[in-house]
């Protein structure tokens, strides 16, 4: 069977295999082939492979498929993987238990199975969980060469947004100053810093900020990351005093940022004045929103222009649909350049 493959010299094979696996791009259903001193690593999505890697299409053998939960259940269950945790969203307790048992009996490398017991709630954006199997809700999640330690019971994190985070991270250039207004455990902050940016991440959730600092350390970018716990409006106005070193964070971030991430889609518009205060002379804002499919971008664009006027010219560089959020509602991102 033919499949897209990354072709790489044998001595770089393991490094590249691990990199593709961490990004979720390795096609495990196919064999890795060796020919003429080169490895051919089958991939799931050729378009998502980093540009510096060579892609070829060639015949590859199929691997014996490991036993999956679907093999044991007789139907395809819906679940998400986050590190060694499987996340269910089942209303029926009996069905949730049946799926959890099948997950643990399958070949999936899983330690814990949880079922969503509430929606995301409160200022800290956390959920209640029913732990069906296992004890710990802490795990290490890997995506696009970064790893994130987190506890699903204490912080918000969506593995579904990995592709979107990488889309934004690929726009970052070394030497930039980037500010994530709602940083969580660092899924934007860490890859930005790995690309050479100086990054500030702010979050209300104290545990999320602790994980952000740890994730900066474990990814080797602690020297380029400042993690601050508090309301970003207070941080930027100078009224917060909690930083990595416990020192006062004056209004040093006004006119500071080359790039701002606003991933709080239900209420990002309430923070636009702060984003404009953060922006330097030329700044890109990544503004996330949830709107009706009839006009998913209009309300956000109107709000940004109103907040930026008259100080900045506003250019919408990208209108991007991230995913379907609910019937007739879309999660979208506006990449907007503010020029003073």
UniProtKB/TrEMBL annotation:
Residues 79-340 form the SAM-dependent methyltransferase TRM5/TYW2-type domain. Keywords: Cytoplasm, Methyltransferase, S-adenosyl-L-methionine, Transferase, tRNA processing. GO terms for biological process: tRNA methylation. It holds the Pfam family TYW2_N_2. GO terms for molecular function: methyltransferase activity. This is Class I SAM-dependent methyltransferase. It comes from Halorussus aquaticus.
